[in-house]
Amino acid sequence: MSKKDNKDRRELTRMMHLGRAPEEYFGIVNPPISRTSTILFPSLADYEDKDRKFRYARMGNPLSDKFECAVAEIENGYAAISTPSGLTSISTTLLAFLKTGDHLLISDSLYPPARSFCENILARFGVEVEYYDPLIGAGIAEKIKDNTAVIYMESPGSATFEIQDVPAITKVAKAHNIITVADNSWAAGILFKPLNHGVDISLQSATKYIGGHSDINLGVAVARTPELYTRLKKSALDIGVCAGAEDLYLALRGLRTLHLRLQQCARNAMIVAEWLQTCEEVQRIYFPALPGDSNHALWKRDFSGTNGVLSFLLRPASKARVSAFVNGLELFPVGSSWGGYESLLQPQYLNTCRTAVPWVQDGALLRLQIGLEDPQDLIDDLSQAFTKFNQET
Description:
The protein folds into two domains: 3-254, 3-Layer(aba) Sandwich (Aspartate Aminotransferase, domain 2); 259-391, Aspartate Aminotransferase, domain 1. 36% of the residues lie in helices and 15% in strands. It contains twelve helices and eleven strands. The strands form two sheets. The chain has a seven-stranded mixed beta sheet, sandwiched between helices. Strands 8-9-11-10 form a four-stranded antiparallel beta sheet, covered by helices on one side. Helix 9 crosses helix 12 (375-391). The protein is globular and about 75 Å long.
């Protein structure tokens, strides 16, 4: 299938063919792993040819090219870079568009390691970092200064899943010639298209839903225009980031089942979320796809679906009772990631990483990754763990 023909197809069909080139690999369906550093040149003229596509593997190779082209097309962007983790996609992007003396506006509900990068690296190099309420919308205009260079969004936000009014924020940013960046990991490039709403750079942790099997570390950032891509790529080259061959291969494979996995995880998560609404042990559920969630209207306006990640706030209880619940679970081991095939639980400690909107809720906040298990088994497991929670003194 030619690239032109593929672009005429619907997204689910295109996902089966993006990043493939059997004609280049003797008919092999999936691009083989390119384990290489050195790339040889047949002549001095070839070496001096600045338009040569591949010069050194860190700068790009057949496998990174296939993956980057695939994700750029999914996100409706111009081109992409791949990096060795989701965090490096964030750091590489911010370093591409910030310099000493600049002002960065960044959502208070961002991924906590990104906050650490801002505070420990960017601030040390003279970038003024300011966190804003993720629900600020067009009110972001009041935060803009003469030296504001980048507005960074994450929608939904980490742990509490605030949906940002991305079109309103990008409208303000464009009026002030400010670069906008959005972490699109939650949507996996499928459920929301930030570039369609005026965002300049859409990035994500491909470790999560694209990989889908909890066995890769990979990031990707997609630029909306050639000019933005040039700056982004130069940053990657200057820093020296590059993705590993095996991770790129597995990510390309993950694209083939991404839609199906998202749909099943979303179905399971909704079943579990609706059940949690009936539990007296639960104060609040954070899941924007759930009718009644404070973010539901914006989610319904901008997103085409949901994934399998949600959080819930336990009613206030002793550490012993919370531990009895968490340790009593059999199908929700404690783990720091999400987006894989398996269910996970991660405690959230937002009092340590929220400043613009301080966390003042009593009770333990627990994030669940709902995987591909039978949802009734997950409910049964949560139910028996709640029994232990209630029995503990």
